[in-house]
Here is the input.
Amino acid sequence: MADLSANLMPLVRIGFLSRAVLYILLGLIALTGAQSVAEGTDGIFRTIETAPLGKVMLGILAVGLAAYGLFRFASLVFDIERNGSDGKGWAKRVGHGSSAAGHFLLAWTAVSFLSGSGSGGDGTSAATAGVLSAEFGGVAIGLIGLAFCAAAIAQAIKGFSGSFMQRIAHDAPRATRAVGGVGYGARAVVFLVIGWSLVEAGFLSRGADNVKTLGEAVAALAETGWLFTLVAIGLVLFGLFSAVLARWRIIPELSASGRARA
Here is the structure.
């Protein structure tokens, strides 16, 4: 059977590039004060949709974001990043699984705009409402929120420590460490806002409409002044960092069984 890496690596690199486009646009929209930042993630995809070759870009983004989601899902199931099976390793792998779910949702939103069916934000609220209506649904949503808060702390630690450099090729641009560190810090703030919105919806009965998507979390910081500006700049930098990863990220080689090579 052919080596799976031959198929996985190009898709994962497209995934990192798609993530770069998403975060750069999100940060720029916030910095320019465009109304679409208040529309959350939908505003980003609507901006892309109205651009020249917007449909083509949406299609590429949908494929790339789904590919990145598969990469993170493989990290959870197959441990392709070799995080291990101890408590710390499983915490990282579960975090990658959450990232997979988030990027699958973003890919679905891109597809919804590509097909002309519109908003992905409404779908997020509807899905959350469906979970909340189930027995112990509030607990499930609240726990997901706590997981996002934990992920926010992990992102902040990663940005401060520079541990992400271990998975980047040595010939990457010299500014990668600084750009990535600031980018992870900004992403940590956004994850914390998303996590707290889920905690409020699940544990404090604030309702599904309280849950924030990626763009809505940034928009929620608009009244904070300097913090909003710093986060917006940080998100642009995280997008640039993701573009660096598209070229210099070390992608694990997989055997035909889907396991990472030693």
